[in-house]
């Protein structure tokens, strides 16, 4: 008897949908290659994070309820953005905690976490012969616990590193400050642009100092911030979402 495929609702954050569609495509293709039954709900919109970050959580309830309505029927909800998934899991407490809301919150996973923890895979057969630097975004690292934090004692772990170390030809470069914030922080980059830009420049410089060719991460909002700095300063770094790397040459 054939084993039933996991049914996944693919959540593509609005900024990826509008600005980085290649990341959404790579995520979809990667999940399909891993044997997952992937569906993209056509009615999906924003998860409500921008409103929540700006202090307007009550005004985001309609968006949050629409998210639940779109994704409540799936075994898992998977998205290539730690910050958006964190918002669903930890900030949908503003809604009435119906069975559907609880199900969506409990079954929402960031892409790397889903591959490692639910599918139990780290070697995906990918090939990417480049020197890569990993930016560990705050929501994924300290919110979703995708890895251990340098400020805490304990055993080192990282779902993102596990996946990148399984990519043929990829050399994961060691950074001087492995889990420092890039300064994006959503609306923080708008209200405190000078601080945000300086923090981003420091993160980019760390990758350059470490001889990185490709800067990657699991949250494209941070990567968008860093890529903007790289492009404005004409620096020799390519920025790619981790889904694009894991989907290469599979």
Folded structure, characterized:
GO terms for molecular function: oxidoreductase activity. Residues 8-88, 133-226 form the Cysteine-rich domain. InterPro entries: Cys_rich_dom. This is L-lactate dehydrogenase complex protein LldE. The protein is α/β, with parallel strands linked by helices. It has two domains: 7-118, no CATH class; 131-246, Rossmann fold, CATH 3.40.50. It has 13 helices and eight strands. It has helices spanning 14-19, 21-33, 49-53, 61-71, 82-91, 99-106, 111-118, 138-143, 159-165, 188-191, 193-209, 220-232, 242-246; strands spanning 7-10, 37-39, 76-79, 108-110, 131-135, 171-172, 214-217, 238-241. It has a four-stranded parallel β-sheet with strand order 2-1-3-4, with helices on both faces. The radius of gyration is 18 Å and the shape is globular.
The top-level CATH class of the largest domain is Alpha Beta
**Per CATH, which architecture of the largest domain?**
3-Layer(aba) Sandwich
Q: Please describe the biggest sheet, giving its number of strands, its sense, and whether it closes into a barrel.
A: 4 strands, parallel
Taken as a percent bin, the fraction of beta residues is 5-15%
Number of H- or I-type helical stretches: 13
* Helical amount: 40-55%
Number of β-strand runs = 8
The average pLDDT value, as a whole number, equals: 92
CATH topology of the largest domain: Rossmann fold
Give the strand order, joined by hyphens, for the main sheet: 2-1-3-4
Tally of structural domains: 2
Summarize the helix and strand pattern as letters.
Answer: EHHEHHEHHEHEHHEHHEHEH
Described by the principal axes of the CA atoms, the overall outline is globular
Q: Spans of 5+ residues with little confidence (pLDDT < 50)?
A: none
Structural class designation: alpha/beta
Give me the Rg, rounded: 18 Å
| Through-space gap between termini | 27 Å
Domain Cysteine-rich: 8-88, 133-226
Organism: Algibacter luteus
GO cellular component, one term: cytosol
InterPro entries: Cys_rich_dom
